[in-house]
Amino acid sequence: MDTSWADSTVNAKVVAGLGGHPRLLAILIWPGERVPFTAMTAALALVCILRRRYEGAALVVISVPLAVAVTELVLKRLCGTSWGNPFPSGHVTSVVALATALTVLIARVPRRRRLVLAFAAFLLAGAVAVGVIGANMHHFSDTIGGAAVGIGTVLATAFILDLLFSTWRRQFQDEGQAHGP
Fold first, then answer.
1. pLDDT tens digits for the chain (181 residues)?
2. Which of 3, 63, 160, 175 lies at a CB distance of 3.0 to 4.6 Å from 154, suitable for a disulfide?
3. How far apart are CA 54 and CA 23, in angstroms?
4. Dihedrals phi, psi of 33, to nearest 5 degrees
């Protein structure tokens, strides 16, 4: 498969800069690996549950694994190449989905803290993207595709859950008013 100008240019620069640093690359890639990613996802869901933000917990436990499943079980099979099944990057999909879920969850946090947390989450996701490019695991376009799947899946899930929870709240309010005190 021919790579695009952007893939060739970005990949060459990242590999030239980081290719000789395997330990650094391993550190950059690590958050996108299955075990640390799963632990971070579970921790975020647990924080939501402990804070009684059950809708937030639902967002995390549904949207983040769904984004990974869309990438691994659907898109990689549809877009497989002779180089393997690199498109989109599962590492990037997972960490961007998690960063997006966190950003949605903190929408009501005071602005400065919200910006710092969202920036840190997406900085981590960007580091994973750079790591998988530097380790020759993915092309630049694979990371962009992974990011798009992660963001799109979480936002679509948030929208659907918001509609469902709004409908359920209205139904419970209507039932409560019908039964009276």
1. 456 788 788 888 888 888 788 899 899 999 999 999 999 999 999 999 999 999 999 999 999 999 999 998 888 888 765 555 578 999 999 999 999 999 999 988 888 899 999 999 999 999 999 999 999 888 899 999 999 999 999 999 999 999 998 887 777 666 666 555 5
2. 63
3. 39
4. -75, 155
CA distance 30 to 41: 14
Q: Are 76 and 87 in contact (CB under 8 A)?
A: yes
C-alpha separations of 133 from 20, 69, 144, 179 in Å: 13, 21, 11, 60
Asked if residue 142 lies in contact with residue 1, where contact means CB atoms within 8 angstroms, the answer is no
- Sequence length of the chain is 181
**Separation in Å, CA 134 to CA 82, 96, 123, 129:** 20, 18, 16, 9
Q: Cα–Cα distance between 57 and 110 in angstroms, integer?
A: 20
